[in-house]
Write a structure and sequence with these properties.
Residues 121-134 have a biased composition (Polar residues). InterPro entries: T9SS_type_B. This protein is mainly beta. It contains 7 helices and 57 strands. Helix content is 5%, strand content 40%. The chain is flat, with a radius of gyration of 66 Å. It starts with 28 loop residues before the first strand and ends with a strand.
């Protein structure tokens, strides 16, 4: 079966609860052209015309819509009802009555389905008739599968289909199947390119956008060559579909909104098939002229650009009057008088020369395809800026002045603008360059002296411009011969950059002259980038730069002079002497040499001034000899008077002075500690063994018993203390008097020639019997008592030293 999709049926049909037309049999929607309905809604029931007794599906109207089918071609007829919502709870039923029944006597349904898709676990909520089903009816609830057997229909038959939605709120659509066809609806036979829309002007003088329209003027366009059709006009789609509330006064319909949509229904009077469409009626506002005047600048088309006469381009006047709005849809014409405009006589050409100076009225007439309006406007001629002949001057200096110099053309703007903020100036080499729109740079180098150039003066408020003249003159004026300004480099920076007070230049200036400083000659000539802090100016180039001093009087350049700025280097010396410079306080005749630490040659080109502890001393040489400690400084100045200061610290030292030697002996780890006088300035080392074997510590450890010579040396070369004889005492723990020449005697160790004989030793046996007594310097006990050998045993000793120190102990005699 071929499906014909007709646009008017593919609409969303939403009906008010007060309108029951589609809910009742008598107002059923006629289905034509095998059209598929889409966006249909079943809402309300109107009159209850469907009873459970009239069908086998036990259904009644809940939310229903009635359709009437007129069969054109014999065949099979089926459909699928597809809810807009896929929710399985959206439950649609349907009932079919016929063939050829009438409202009020529809009889029993020949096909119906009230199956609930959720109760049968159906995969979707579709329902309808198809070739695959065998039952004529099904339902309610879980009975059936939502589809019944389709119909076999004959040409000329008619049927009613009632679509009911007992559950849910979804709209739906119908898709037809089978071989049968419906009657064809009429068409809108509107010629291609012709619109049904009606537009007209708001001509009642109230501008309320309400007007009377003749809708029937569209009848011929809609019907065309069709017969047996009628046309009706409606204010809503619902009314057009259900054929109610037809606009009765269609020849003089007064719109209720602007724009307003009109709905058209065309119906075949024989088949009842219909079609709908829409068009727009609109009340247009009269043509609006936002502005009432247009202007142009005075020009020299008549040989005079100051007489208020000019040529107006009326296309640009249109742009101005309509305030740059799009006017492509308008037809615009101009006339000298209202009468000419009214009768379209003597239209003005595009380029119109005004005949009334400064201001002239004319009339503009515009047509937008619907409305025509005329308005008086004024053409205004705007004066151009006053033409002026001005002059400017510049200096030329140097060894070979040629009358050519740099000019900053902005310096002369005020001559043409008189400080009017609306006026701007652009300069050109000549009028030809001005016409070619080839302006000069702000910085201009003249090519002849004098030279006249063109200044285009433009008024920003009006856009009008005029050409003035500027004559440039170059004065050849000698520069002043200025001495260089010299400055020493900055200590600890020494990069050739430092600051100058430019006011120190020996420049002669009168009270009426103004001097200004610049970094370059070109800046000085065109008076740009002036030095704003001349008393504290840092040079841009290391060691050697220049500045240029411009002198002006009465607004004119008097001279430009150059002054060199020279940064002299500081002497190249080591400012800090890190060497040890030491003198001996105990050797006043010993001198050391210190120097200015210069890293350059030709020391004779420098001056030296020496100080000790801040007090100047009578020395002016590169190196001096000193024998006193102190903080020495020397100022090293070069031929430019630039100097650096070197600092040399001289310290003193002296020979050691020993106040005491503390000996801890008679032990397994004897020690010797040397005590020196306090506040000694030397750096000392110590020795007990040799005069050249020294240690830095004054304490000696693990010193064996014996006699030693003590030396203390000053490392700074100020002398050696010593030798001083030191005794470290000790006794043997045993001896073997067997005349073998080894340990045959027991005696006191560490006794030297400096030891006093007043020290003595007593030896006792176990019973305390005195066996032997001897002087500390004696050679020792041979192990006999009364010439008889003593037995091997332990013996005790008592040593009484001269300093009243007593030492007691024991030792072993072994045979």
């Amino acid at each position: 079966m071929t499906n014909f999709k007709i646009p008017f049926l593919a609409l969303i049909l939403v009906f008010s609860s007060k309108i029951f037309s589609q809910n009742d049999c008598s107002k059923a929607i006629i289905v034509c052209g095998n059209s598929g309905f889409e966006g249909l809604t079943a809402s309300g029931i109107g009159k209850q015309e469907l009873f459970a007794s009239s069908n086998s599906c036990q259904g009644e109207e809940n939310n229903s819509i009635w359709l009437k089918l007129s069969i054109k071609t014999t065949g099979t007829l089926g459909f699928t009802l597809i809810p807009e919502s896929t929710d399985i709870n959206e439950d649609f039923d349907f009932f079919i009555f016929g063939p050829n029944v009438t409202c009020g006597a529809i009889g029993k349904a020949i096909r119906c389905s009230t199956t609930n898709p959720e109760s049968i676990n159906q995969p979707n909520n579709f329902t309808g008739m198809n070739a695959a089903s065998n039952d004529d009816s099904e339902g309610p609830g879980p009975d059936g599968n939502s589809f019944v057997k389709w119909l076999t229909v004959s040409a000329g038959d008619s049927y009613f289909i009632v679509i009911d939605r007992p559950t849910g709120s979804s709209n739906f659509k119908l898709e037809w199947s089978g071989s049968a066809t419906f009657n064809t609806p009429p068409t809108f036979d509107v010629p291609t390119g012709v619109a049904l829309d009606i537009k007209q002007c708001d001509t009642d003088g109230f501008q309320d956008f309400i007007s009377e329209f003749n809708l029937k003027q569209n009848d011929p366009l809609i019907i065309g060559t069709q017969s047996d059709v009628i046309v009706s006009y409606h204010t809503s789609q619902n009314d057009a579909l259900t054929n109610v509330k037809e606009i009765k006064n269609a020849t003089n319909f007064k719109n209720t909104s602007n724009p307003q949509t009109i709905f058209v229904r065309i119906e075949n009077t024989i088949t009842g098939c219909f079609n709908t469409t829409t068009f727009i009626i609109k009340v247009n506002d009269p043509v609006n002229f936002p502005k009432n005047e247009a202007s142009t600048c005075d020009d020299s088309s008549d040989g005079n650009d100051t007489n208020g006469l000019a040529i107006f381009d009326l296309s640009k006047v249109t742009t101005a009057i309509f305030d740059n709005e799009d006017t492509t849809a308008l037809t615009v014409k101009y006339y000298i008088s209202q009468n000419d405009a009214d009768v379209d006589l003597n239209e003005l050409s595009q380029f119109f020369p005004n005949t009334s100076p400064n201001k002239q009225p004319i009339f503009i007439k515009a047509f937008d395809g619907t409305c025509t309006d005329t308005k008086e406007i004024n053409l205004i001629v705007i004066p151009v800026p006053t033409k002026i002949k001005a002059s400017g001057s510049q200096c030329d200096f140097g060894l070979n002045p040629d009358g050519l110099s740099l000019f900053n053309l902005n310096d002369y703007n005020s001559s043409f603008t008189s400080s009017d903020p609306n006026l701007t100036v652009t300069y050109f080499k000549n009028k030809t360059q001005e016409q070619n729109k080839n302006p000069l740079n702000t910085v201009f180098n003249n090519t002849s002296n004098p030279e006249t150039i063109v200044g285009r003066v433009t008024n920003a408020a009006t856009g009008c411009a005029s050409l003035s003249e500027l004559t440039l003159n170059v004065k050849i004026i000698p520069s002043q011969n200025l001495k260089p300004l010299e400055q020493c480099d900055v200590l600890n920076k020494e990069d050739g950059f430092t600051t100058f007070n430019l006011d120190n230049a020996n420049l002669v200036v009168t009270p009426t002259q103004i001097k200004t400083f610049y970094s370059t000659q070109s800046d000085a000539l065109i008076k740009q980038n002036s030095i704003t802090t001349p008393t504290n100016y840092t040079i841009p180039i290391a060691y050697n730069s220049s500045v240029f001093i411009r002198i002006d009087e009465a607004g004119s350049c008097t001279s430009v002079s150059e002054v060199q700025l020279i940064v002299n280097k500081l002497p190249n010396i080591e400012t800090q002497d890190d060497e040890k410079n030491i003198v001996c306080s105990n050797i006043p005749n010993r001198f050391i040499t210190i120097n200015a630490g210069k890293l350059e040659t030709n020391s004779s080109n420098f001056n030296y001034t020496w100080y000790r502890d801040g007090v100047k001393i009578n020395s002016t040489t590169y190196a001096i000899r000193v024998n006193r400690e102190g903080n020495y400084t020397v100022d090293v100045a070069n031929r430019f008077g630039c100097f650096k200061t070197r600092t040399i610290t001289v310290t003193s030292s002296e020979i050691a002075m020993v106040t005491d030697v503390i000996v801890s002996d008679f032990s397994e780890s004897n020690t010797v500690e040397v005590l020196l006088e306090e506040d000694l300035t030397g750096d000392y080392v110590f020795s007990l063994y040799k005069s050249n074997d020294f240690q830095s510590s004054p304490i000696f450890t693990d010193v064996p018993a014996g006699v030693y010579e003590l030396y203390v040396k000053d490392l700074n070369g100020c002398g050696v203390f010593g030798p001083k004889i030191i005794s470290v005492l000790g006794v043997p723990k045993f001896f073997t008097p067997n005349n073998d020449g080894v340990n045959d005697l027991w005696n006191l160790k560490g006794v030297g020639s400096n030891f006093s004989r007043k020290s003595f030793i007593q030896i006792f046996n176990r019973e305390g019997k005195l066996l032997y007594e001897m002087n500390a310097r004696d050679k020792g006990w041979d192990g006999t008592y009364n010439s008889n050998p003593s037995t091997s045993d332990d013996y005790w000793y008592v040593i009484n030293l001269e300093n009243n120190k007593t030492i007691k102990g024991h030792f072993s005699l072994k045979r």
